[in-house]
Amino acid sequence: MKEWLRSIPAIHELQSHDAFLSLQEESNLDHLQLTKQLKDVVDQVRDTIIHDKWAGAKPGTNRFIEELFAILEMNLKKQFSYTIEKVINATGTILHTNLGRARLSENAISHVVETARNYSNLEYKLNEGARGSRHSHVEALLKEITGAEAAMVVNNNASAVYLVLRAMAKNKEVIVSRGQLVEIGGSFRISSIMEESGAQLIEVGTTNKTHLYDYENAVTTETAIVMKVHTSNFKVVGFTKSVETETLIDLTKRLDDVIFYEDLGSGALYDFRKHGIGDEPVVKEVIEMGADVVTFSGDKLLGGPQAGIIAGKKEIIDCLKTHQLARVVRVDKMTLAALEGTLIDYARGEKAMRNIPVIRDLLVSLNEIDERSRVFVTNLLHRTSSFQAKIFPHTSQVGGGTMPDVVLPTLVIALIHDSLTAEQLSRKLRTESKPAIIARIQKEEFIIDLRTVTLEEEAILLEKLVNIGDPS
């Protein structure tokens, strides 16, 4: 062991090696940083020798030096590679939370790139030559699309809920049905957010039934808000009763200094109900009913970036804009650019809305999925004999805690490899493919749903499967 340790070349000797100079040029690291990385590798190798775990070449040989630099190169690639990377979502789940939820439209992407690459008028009025507000960039679009008097954007919908309750009901009462005290992803609960805001939660009704008189009986002089939480991530079925938005709005209109606030969660700006998809209320309808303020997400059914959108009466929104917490939960220029790029397609009308991937993928026809699936299978079997393939009816999910009771009819491709199990195939495509490919496994079959795969991605997916099927 001592002989091996003494045979490890000194750092200054390794620094003059051609492999060191080559890695410095390739990695674009300065001399000091690459030397630090080299020292770490030498220490790592020395430690394995001391603990009798070194399985490489004998120290002092050329082969040993080659292995040192191979380890260094591998470490550099690992350390300086992005951890957030593109994946192909072949699961058919449109708003896949683990895979980043909504895919942005090309308009949104190009606007983000342009905004990120350059200086912008984020908080500057070009006409007046004076300081402006970042709220102004999407407010006009949100007002036009939702019909609200005013609007603002924060970093996510949980923040939107928190800001509304903190600003409008701190140390006051907020009445909400027990059946609407939802828990969202990561064990975050509406009730907990309300408590953190300083508002006093007044629960009324039961899990499955809440009546108007429950709200009426709960109103006191300390009541600030009657709140409704749209249960977009679960459904209670059977013996149920809830109070409609319009009825609660009428109630608050009869009360002094009490506002109606609805957290819409998923935030549908497009009416999917006319296509027979779900029963999500459209934001504009709730505003037109007379809601004082509503909140909803930007990266779910809206199809934009992660954001929380607050819309409603100007007096309330102005109060929220000037609240100290507004700066804490504000969004950056790239989020605003992505949201503006998305909202412009909404403002242009239904044809332009199909540019938004969430809407496009939700409304894609069964005939189109069928045709694409058949062409895909034909091409796959033509290029490799390692797969058995079949196409059969199945369902896609909306995902992202949205439309939990909605299943979208689809057609899926089921693959069986002649030497790999479905789990092995899935793992290879997930860990060895760049980009990684994520699909489903069902009854020992590898399941692909092209609903969430673009034509460009489809070509990549085909190539990866062919290479696995025929590695030669």
Characteristic terms for this protein:
472 residues, alpha/beta, 7-stranded mixed sheet, 4-stranded antiparallel sheet, 20 helices, 17 strands
Topology:
Layout: H1 2-7, H2 11-15, H3 18-27, H4 31-50, H5 62-79, E1 87-89, H6 106-117, E2 124-125, E3 130-131, H7 136-146, E4 150-154, H8 157-169, E5 173-177, E6 183-184, E7 188-189, H9 190-197, E8 200-204, H10 212-218, E9 223-229, H11 245-253, E10 259-265, H12 283-289, E11 293-297, E12 308-312, H13 314-321, H14 325-328, H15 333-348, H16 350-353, H17 357-363, H18 366-383, E13 387-399, E14 402-417, H19 422-431, E15 436-438, E16 440-442, E17 445-448, H20 455-469
Parallel strand pairs: 1-15, 5-8, 5-9, 9-10, 10-11
Antiparallel strand pairs: 2-3, 4-12, 6-7, 11-12, 13-14, 14-17, 16-17
Helix pairs in contact: 3-5, 4-5, 6-15, 7-15, 8-9, 18-20
User: Distance between termini?
Assistant: 43 Å
C-alpha Rg (nearest Å): 28 Å
Approximately what portion of the residues adopt beta-strand conformation?
15-25%
Count of separate DSSP helical elements: 20
- Structural class by SSE content: alpha/beta
How is the largest sheet built, in terms of strand order? 4-12-11-10-9-5-8
- Percent helix among the residues? 40-55%
Which spans have pLDDT < 50 for at least 5 consecutive residues? Answer: none
Number of strands: 17
What does the overall shape look like? Answer: globular
Instruction: Give a short account of the largest sheet.
Output: 7 strands, mixed
Instruction: Give the overall pLDDT as a whole number.
Output: 92
